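Key idea: predict the complex, not the pieces.
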Amino acid sequence: MSWTGNVLRVNLSAGTCTTEPTNMEWAHDYMGQRGLATKYLVEETDPKVDPLSPDNKMIFATGPLTGTIAPTSGRWSVVCKGPLTGAIACSNSGGFFGAELKNAGWDMVIFEGKSDSPVYLDITNDQAELKDASDLWGKSVWETETALRDRRGDPDVRVASIGLAGENGALYAAVVNDMDRAAGRSGVGAVMGSKHLKAVVVRGTVGVKVADPMALMKTSNAAKEILAENAVTGEGLPTHGTQVLMNVINEVGALPTRNGHDVQFDGAHDISAEAMAEVRESDGQANLVSNHACFGCPISCARRSKIDPTHFTVKDKPQYQHVSGGLEYEAAWALGAANGINDLEALTYANFVCNEQGLDPISLGATIGAAMDLYKEGAITQEDTGGVALEFGNTEAFVAMVEATARGEGFGKEIGQGSKRLCEKYGHPELSMTVKGQEFPAYDPRGIQGMGLTYATSNRGACHLRSYTVASEVLGIPEKTDPLVTDGKAGLVKAFQDATAAVDSSGTCVFTTFALSGEDIAPMVDAACEGDWSLERFVEVGERIWNMERQYNIAAGFTAADDNLPERLLKDAAKTGPAEGHVNRLDEMLPEYYELRGWDTSGVPTSETLSRLGL
Amino acid sequence: MHYVIAGAGPAAIAAAEHLRELDASAQVTLIGAQAQPPYSRMAIPYFLTGKVSEEGTYLRRSQDHYEAHGLNLIHGEVTAVDPKGRSVTLGDGQKIKYDKLLLATGAEPIIPPVSGMEDPRVQQCWHLEDAERIIELAKPGARAVQVGAGFIGCIILESWVLREVNLTVVEMGPRMVPRMLGEKAGGLLQSWCEAKGVTVHTNTQVKAIESTPDELQVVLENGETCPADVVIVSTGVKPRLHYLEGCDIDIDQGIVVDAHMQTNQPDVYAAGDCAQGLDFSTGETAVHAVQPTATEHGRIAAANMVGNNNLPYKGSLNMNILDTLGLVTCSFGAWEGVAGGDSAEMYNPDNHQYVNLQFKDDVLVGANSVGYHEHLGVLRGLIETQIPLGEWKDRLKDNPVNLVEAYQGVNQAALQNG
Amino acid sequence: MHKALVMEVDACTGCHQCELMCSYGKVGAFNTAKSVMDITIYDGGAINVPSTCTQCQEAWCMVVCPVQAITVNPATGAKEVSAEACVGCKVCTIACPFGAINYDPDSGVVTKCDLCGGEPMCVEACPTTALAYVAEDSTGYDKMRRSATLAAGLEA
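Result:
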C-alpha cells in the first residue's frame, strides 16, 4: 500500500527489463524517492565509480505519496552518482511523469549498464520494453517527447528524456519531463546519455492504493487548507511564482551578481516576477501567460511564458514562439544577474533552450558568469570564445554561449563542463562559484549567512534545496532569524536538511514547507503507509538519509576540506546593501554543525551517530 | 387517441415511452413477435459470453415496466396493414384499429442461398433462442465457421474465442466490416483477429455446406474447404417488410419516410431498422439499422405522431462501435469521405491504432478509428454541430489523435466569441 | 431545483486534484486514468479545461442504452450507470456528443459522472474556484449550458 511494491530493473547492456519486489525493509527506513533510491545506489554501486561509466546506476524513483491525493504529489527523483560533482546526485522533478510512473505500478526504475545503441524505455503498466531510439538520438527533448507521444498514439502518455546536452555529456545536463519540468541539477542527464538511454515513456492506469484513504483525505485536506491560507503558498507563489523572490533577495543584498562581484543587481526589477507580468510595448502582451500546476499541486507556482516574437532571439524561429515553461527565480538569477543581463526576453529564450535541450539553467548561467569573469581577467579571449566578446551584460554574447552549450559546439563544450573545470583549465580556480564542483544558486551567503553553511555542507554540491534557510532568514518561516548573524544557523541548517530529506523522500514538494511543517506532512505519510509514521520517525528518516549520503560522499573521496565556499564569499566583503561589509563566516558555523550532526571534527559521522541511525 | 406500434424493439419502445411522455391520455399498443419480454439484440453477444443472463438482455429492467407506463404490450405478429381502414392484422387473424400507426418491425437476417443451410448445426445468431442453441453447440475445442464478418459477426466473434472454439471467419467483402471500416482499419481488425488465433478469409463466399453425421464441410468459392462442428451465419440483415405487400406503403431499401418519419400514407410512420429515413450526412434516405438511429427514430416519430408533424428531423448520423476481442473500432457519418473533401489520417499498425477523419472544408463529416475507446462521442458532437474547426483542422491534420483537445478547443473558442 | 457542476476554465490550474478524488470515488484508488472528470491541457498548462458530463436534458446516453442501464437519480438529476445492468456494448459512448461517457476495459462497463450522489468529490478536491456545485440558475451554469448547446445542437 502506497508503495507499489515493484521495482523495474533495466539492464541496458543486456537489453532486459525485470521486475523485483521493493525492499520493504529499506522502504520503512528510507521512505521512498530520494532516500530509498539512494539506499539502493549505496548498496549496489561502488562510490568510487566513474559517474559516466556503465558501472554507475541511475534510478528513477517515486515516493509513497507520489500519485496520491496528498497535495503536490507529482514529485519524483533521479538518483545516481553525479558527474558534475563526483558526489551523490539526487535531482527532484515535478510535472506529471512521476505520478504516471507510480500509476503504472512502479516505485522505482533502476537503470544499469549501457546500451550499445540508443534506446528508450516504453512502459505501459507492468509491460516494459527497451526500444530502438536511433532515430531520436540527436533530437531535442521537445522533439523526442512529441515523437514518442505520436508513436504511442496516446495523448496521455508521459515522457522523460534528454536533449542534445545529455547526449553530448554536458556535465549539468538535465532529465526533462513533460516538456519543461526537469530533474535539473548535478548532471543526471549526462548519466542518462552515457547509458545511451534517450527517453522513458510511460502510461499508467493501475491506480495507487494507500493504507487508509479516509485518513489521507482528511490529512491532505487539512494540509491544503494551510497551503491555501499561507501568504507564500496561497498567494505569492501562485501569483508570481518563485520569481517573487527576485526583488526581495535583491533588497536583502543577497543577489549574487556578475559571478559574485556584487550582491545587488541594478537590473533586478527588469527580470523579476513583476516585470514578467508587465505588458510589453512591442506586442502588447506580457511575458507571463499564466501559472500552472504540477500533478496534484494546489500551489501552482509554475510559469507559462511567451517570448516577444519580434525579439532577436526568436525571430524566424517558430519553435520558440509558442507558450512554454517560463522563468523560475533560480533560472532568472543564474541566466540574468549572474551575467549582468537584464533582458527578460533573452533570459526566457535561454530558459526555453535549457528545457529544449535538457540543461540545468543554474549551472549554465553560473558557468557563463564564470567565463565572463575569466574574460574580464583576460584569462580567455575572443580566440577561445570563437570571436564572442564575452563581457558581463552582453546579451548577444550570452545568447551565443547558451546556444553553443546546448548544442555542444565550440566554446560551448567548455561551458558544458561547468564552472569548476572551466576556471581550473584557464588557471583561475578561485573564480569558480561552486562547492564540490556544483555552481551555487541565487542566494549570496554574504547576505544570508545560513546559506553559506547550506552550500558548504550540501551533499550534492552547492544547492539551495537541501536546506532552504532563506525561509527563516528572509521570509520568517517558521520564525525570523537575522540573515547576517551566524548564531543558531548550524542548528537551523541541520533541521532544514533533515526535514527536506524526508520531504524529498515522500513524493511531495519541498515548497509545501513554506506552509507545512513535519507535523502536517508526517500524518499524510502515516495515513498512506503501513506502520507508524510519527513526526519523530519522519525526521529521523531524514537524518538517516542525510548521514547515508554523507557516508557515500566520504567513500567517494570527499573530506571536510570540501565543505567549503569559494574564496570570494569568504574574503571579499559585500559592497552594497544591508550586507555591505560582510563576508560569509562559515568558520563560525561549521564546527558547531559537525558537532550537532554527531560528526567528528573531520566531518565524519561517529560510530555512535551511525549506530543511533541504524547505519 | 390510439397509437399502435408494430414491433417491440428499441425503436418501438423508445417511441412508446415518448408517446406516453407527450400524451398522458394516449392509448398505446405495442405488438411484439417474440415470446420473451422485449429484449435487445445488441445484448445477445454478452448473453453468449455469459456476461449477462437472459433477463440482462431485456430492454427494460422491471417486469411491470410497460404496465406501469400504461403501455399495452401484446404478443403477436403483424401480417398485414390496411392504411385506408386504419387497422393491422395479426397472425391469428385479429384486427387492431389504430388512429396512428408506427411500423417498427425491425430487421431480419439475410439467409445466403447456399445448400446445406437447413442442417441443425448451421445457426443464425439473431434470436435469443439461436443464442441458446449456439451455446450448446460451441463446446471448447469445437471447430466453428462463422459466415460473415459484419457488425454482428465481429461482436459475437469474441464469444466463440472465449468458449475456446477453433474459429474460422469467412467474409465475402474485401475486408472485415466493409460497410463500416476502410481498408486500413479493416486490415488492422483482421490482423488483430488473426493474432488471437482466428482464421480469416476475405473476398470469398460460401459455395455450399456439406453435411456428414460427424461434421460439416464448408466449401468456399476460393477453393478451400473448412471442416466444422458448427456454422454460424451472420451475413447481414435486411428490413422486415414482407407483411407490407400490397398496401401501398412506399418501400425502397426499407420503408421510406419523410423528415417527420411519416410514410407516404397519412398517419402511418416508420422507425428503426425497417425504416429508410433521412441520413444526416447525405441528405438522402438510408437504412442504418443501428441502435442510435433506432431510438432517435422512435422518439422523433412519436413527437410527430402526437404533434401532427411539427418536428422535422435533420436526419440520423450513421455510427457504429464494435469491440472485437478487445479491439475497439468505430465509424461515424461519411467515413469514406465526401466529394471535394479533405482528410487526416494516423496509421500505426504496430499498435493496431488508426484514426481517419474526413472533412468538408473545415467541418468534420466522418471518421473511422481503431484501437481507441475514450471520448469517441466528441466525433458525433463535432460532426452533428457542423462547428467550423478553424485552426484546429490543421492541428488535427498534424495529429488526428488529439480529438478531445480539438473538441474542447473549438468549444472554448465558440464560447469566447459568444 | 437540481444543482449543477459548474466549471470555470480561467480558474483551473490543471493540478488534477479533481481527477484524483473522482477516481477514488469511482474505483477506490487514486488513478486519474479512471476519472470521469477530465482536464484538457493547452499550451503545456497555460489553459486548462475541465470537463465531464453536463447531465444534459437530452441524455443521449440514457435514451440509446439497449438495456436501461442508465437511469436518472431523481434526487440529483444525475444520469447514473448501473454497473450490473451495463453489458458493455459502448453504444452510449458514441451517442454522447460530449464524449462524456466512456468504456472502462478493466471493469467491462461504461462510466460517467454521477455527481457522487449529490456531493461531488471533485468539487471538494478543487483548490481553486474552477469547480463548483451550485443551483442551476447561476450564471456559470448558463455559460456551461451554452457550451453544451454549441457542442451538441442535436435538437431535431
